[in-house]
Amino acid sequence: MTSTPALPGVAGTDPSRSIRSASLTAGIALLLLAALSIFGFMVVVKGLVTPGDPAQTAKDITESSGVFRLGIASLYLVIPLDIAVAWALYRVFSPVSKSLSMLAATLRIAFATVFMVAISQLVGALRLLNDDYLAAFSPEQLHAQVLLAINAFSDVWHAGLFLFGLHLLVVGYLAFKSGYVPKLIAVLVAIDGLSYAVDTFGTVLSPGPWTDTATFTFIGELLLGLWLVIRGRRLTVTEPGAHSRPTAAPITTAR
Asked: What is the domain partition of the chain in residue ranges?
C-alpha cells in the first residue's frame, strides 16, 4: 500500500467542509436545472412547436401563451444554476487540477452566456404574436417569422452545446482522475460531452433532420448530480491537503 501524494492545503480553512458544501451545491443545482430544462424545452418548446408548420405553431403558442411564457422563464432560471454548477464543480475538482477545473468552469459559463442569447429568440417569437404586428405583416408572414425565431433559438443553442460538450469532457476527465468519483460515472459524463459536441456539428453537416444523440446519453450528468448529493456530501480530506474521498480511512492505493 502506498499513500497518495498530498496536495498543498490552505491554512486556516477546512477543505473537507468546503468540498462537501460544493458537492451538495453542484448536485442540487444539476438536478434542478435538469428538471427545468426538461420542462422548458422538452415539454413546452417541443410540445408547442410543429416543425415545418408555422400556422399550427403560432396557433398552439397563442392558445397556450401562459405555458410558453412559463417555459421561457424556466429556461432563464437554468442560467444562474449553470453558473452555480460551474463554481461548485471547480471547488469539487480543484484538488485534482486547478487549471483544468477553471477551464471546465469557464466553458460552462461561456455556454450559459450563449444559452441566454438563444432564449431571447423565444421571447422575440412571443412578441411577434402580439396584435401590434398585424398592422405591418400578414398573418402568414408573422407565423413564418415566429417559426424562424424558434429555429434561431435551436441553432444558437446547438452552437453553444459545443462549449457545453467540451465542459463535460473536461469534467469527465477530472472525475476519472479524481479517485473519488466512480469511474463509470466519469466515463458516462465524458460520453455525454462527446455527444453534445457531435450534435453541434451534426445539425450543420447533416443534409436532413438530425436526431440529437445527447437525448440518449444525458444520463451521465444526471448520475453525477445524484452522486454529488448522496455521496459527495460525505467527502473528507483525511490528511492535510490530500485528495478527498467518501471515507474516513487514510488515502491509499493498492499495488
From this structure: 14-237
